[in-house]
Every structure is written in C-alpha cells, then in structure tokens.
Amino acid sequence: MLISFIKNCATYFILFLLYLLHFFPLCILRFCGKMLGGFLFYVVLPRKKVVLKNLELCFPSLSESQRKILAKKHFQAFACAVLDRSLGWWASPKRLTKILKLGGEGVADLENAIQQKQPIVVLAPHFIGLDAAGTILSMKYHFSSMFSNQKNEILNKVLYNGRMRFHEPVLMSRQDGLRKIVKTLKQGIPFYYLPDMDFGRKESIFVPFFGIATATTPALVRLCQMTKAKVIPCITRQIADGYEITLEKAWENFPSENADKDTLLYENTVAMNKYIESKILTMPEQYFWLHKRFKTRPEGEESFYKK
Q: Taking each helix axis from N to C terminus, what angle separates 26-43 and 45-58, rounded to the nearest 10 degrees?
C-alpha cells in the first residue's frame, strides 16, 4: 500500500514538472532534454547495454567509440522527445502548428484518399518523433491507431487523453486483432501503423533487418491484402525548432502478388524492412534503439541480450 502511494506521488510530481515545462520555449525544453539524456546515458545501464548491442548488430563497421557517441546522441534525442511530448498534451493548437511541420507528396495522396473514403495505412517506423507526427495528423484528420495500456493507471490516463485530444481518433489495442483495424480502414479512416516492434514468435515471421533474422509482424501485408489499402510512409525528424513530418508518396504495387501466400508475406515484409533501414541510415541517432528489437530469436539461437 505504501509503495503504491509513493509511486503515485512520484508520477504526479513528474507529470506536474512536465506540465510546467510545456510553458517554456522549445529551446529550453531541448536544453533540458539533452542534459537529461546525457545523464540517463551514464545512469540507466541496462538500457544503455541494449542500445549499444543494437548498434553493434546493425553497424558493425563502426568502432566501439563511434557507437558510444551515437548511443549518447540517441539518449539525448529520446529525452528531448519525451519532454516535447508535454507540448502535444497541453500546448495550444496554434503553438503546435508552428512546431510540427507537416509536408511531403503524400499529403495530397492522404487527403484524396480521405475524400474518397479509400483505405490508407500511414506507415510510421519507430523514430523518436512518432508521437509528434501522431499529434499533427490527429489535429488535421480523423485517424485510427494502436494504444498500449500502461501498468501505471495515472500515466495511462494522461497518455490516453493526449491521444484523444484532437478529432477523437479510434484507438485500438493489439488484443483487438486485425478485425477492428480492417473495419476502420473500410470506413475510410486512415490507420497510423507502427510496424517495427518485436511482438514475439507467435505474431511474427523472421525476415532480414540490417542483415539479421528479425521477428517482424507481416500485418501490413495482410491489411493491404484484406482492404486494398494504399501505404503512405510517414517519417518524422526531430529538428532544432520542432519536427519535420514528411508523408511520402503512396507506394505502388504493394503488396506485390506474384508468388504463393508464404513467399508473398515474406518478400513484402522484407521490402518494408529494407525501406525502414534506408530511412534509419539518414538519421541513425533518432531510431528507437532502446527497444530490444532482436529479442525473439529463431529456434536454437541464443539471445543477444544476455544479462
């Protein structure tokens, strides 16, 4: 009981600090974020090991010192994104539109599809600014997305309210399965989809990611097959004065259907991963390396993340 009370008090205190921070100019937030990220890099050792292992696996040509520099930059960018999230929760729409810059050829594709109620999947790889993209897209359009409930009920409520702040998006959990997503897509509601997390062996197939067999859900391929949805990639870059959210041109001929079912799933999921790799290479410090992306291994392989 006492431990729960202390945890709740700590959560309220942290949220109060975040609320106060959202009043400050972005440059102050970024300064605090870089200081916090640098501190966490030296203190949160278990996650630092995860980041360094991921970088070792994906960038074997870099030296150990180069990977440590990249890892520290990642911690700093991630911490900045966490503090910036307070803006999405509480800043005025006017301020948000100045900080969150939406553009790209895919904007027209998205708006045309919405007008015609065509199914659209907005593919958002796990860059640290993906919540910024979710905020600006929900401000402008009626979207659907996934929501993972947190164990901390206080934080969970704040996160949920933050997601629901604009246009009341349709939020679904992974437990809902594909059926609810398919239903919203067929209603012409775009789906904001995060494709690159390790959800375990049951939901995944193993495809290369930076040359490593990686458990990857083929849900994007299945959704496109079931709904004839087009895929519009969304790449978010953290910049000095905010975020650049780029909607790229809708993919053509995805998924390709010139093979049997299993080969089709495999080849198109490989294509998705190759695309994500190409974008990571443009800003490697901003990809979500804190996640144990290679946790699930093929039968017989040892874990990369030994204690």
A: 90
The three-point CA angle 293-184-202 to 5° equals: 35
pLDDT of residue 93: 96
Are 136 and 87 in contact by the 8 Å Cβ rule? The answer is no
- Distinct helix (H) and strand (E) counts, the chain: 11, 9
Q: What share of the chain is helix, strand, coil (3-state, %, to 5)?
A: 55, 15, 30
Tracing tokens 């960018």 back to the chain, one arrives at 77
Residue among 192, 215, 238, 235 at smallest CA distance from 294: 215
Query: Per the structure block, which two tokens stand in for 86?
Result: 């307070």
Give the residues of the chain that fall short of pLDDT 70. 1-2, 259, 307
Question: Quick check: 134 and 145 in contact, CB under 8 A?
Answer: yes
**Span between the terminal Cα atoms of the chain, in Å:** 31
Q: What is the reported pTM?
A: 0.94
**pLDDT per position as a tens digit, 29-78:** 999 999 999 999 999 999 999 999 999 999 999 999 999 999 999 999 99
